[in-house]
Amino acid sequence: MTPTLFAGTSFLVALITSYFVTLKWIDAAKRRDLVGRDVNKPYTVYVPEAGGVGFVMGFSMGALASVALGTFLVDRSSWCLYVLAALNTVLMAAFIGFIDDVLGWKKGLSHRAKVLSTLPIAIPLMAIKAGVSVMCLPLIGCLNLGILYPLLIVPVGVVGATNAFNMIAGLNGLEAGMALIILSTLGVLAYTHGNLAALIISISAVGAALGFLKLNWYPARVFPGDVLTYSVGSVIATVAVVGNMEGPALILFLPYFLELALYLYGKKNGVEKESWGRPVGECLEVPYDKPYSVTHLAMKALKALKGCAKEKEVVELILLVEAALAVIVLYLYS
Description:
The protein has helices at 3-31, 52-74, 80-103, 111-117, 123-127, 148-164, 174-192, 196-216, 225-242, 246-252, 254-268, 294-306, 311-333; strands at residues 35-37, 46-48, 134-137, 141-144, 278-280, 283-285. It is mainly alpha-helical. A two-stranded antiparallel sheet has the order 1-2. A two-stranded antiparallel ribbon has the order 3-4. Strands 5-6 form a two-stranded antiparallel ribbon. A hairpin with a 3-residue loop joins β3 (134-137) and β4 (141-144). The radius of gyration is 19 Å and the shape is globular. The model has no long low-confidence stretch (mean pLDDT 91).
């Protein structure tokens, strides 16, 4: 079997599973009153939360579909170990995110608890010594980190990406859209570099993200919750480790580094910022005197250009910037 067949199977299984599980989750969440207000709308609407369970189920089934093919039909399953380790990492991250979602917004885990609880999720990757100790980073070059790679870089990378991906969020389609672009880019690199494990992991997540995005795009019928953002962050880190793509991942995460800088700037000014806007009719206004998020920068840019920053356009602008970074990554690393 060719890598294309493995990837195609994982993609389709993940896409279909994610979409239909999310549909079922929407009904279940409504019945249990697990809903939250969409604060970016000028009218009052409540949307089912924690819809990322559909993404997690889709990713899991997509990855396991290729493991089944590799084990029982081809009997060339050395790469399956990496896929199963990745699955363990992602499921642990998703569990932490789901706990936070169920406990409720502003009532769940503290920032410190989230970071500490994600420390063990890198253990499966560390145990199988996933990745290569030689890292090639932009502007720095290649470094051979030896034993420091599995013991330090892998856990720091996994914990960092898992928590960072949760930072740019709060608008319809934003989280799933970013996941789609970043993971598609890493998937293309995995394919061109012949890394089947990284390809299966990334393409399973791409299919799952696409299935979820269909229901999360503006106007959203479901919110992703931390269960999606945490699991996606862990997938990105896992693909970067397994595929030896730390450099591309860092470039693709530049908006999240900017988000962190804006967040710290807000903390310095005593502002506990939120990424969403203040609806004024169909437009979104920055709810603070200064921008403290990438979403706020997009709102200000659109208002300056068009006089109005609509939610869908804010998301599209951020996704366009991420797509530009993806083109740069493909140019540099393909």
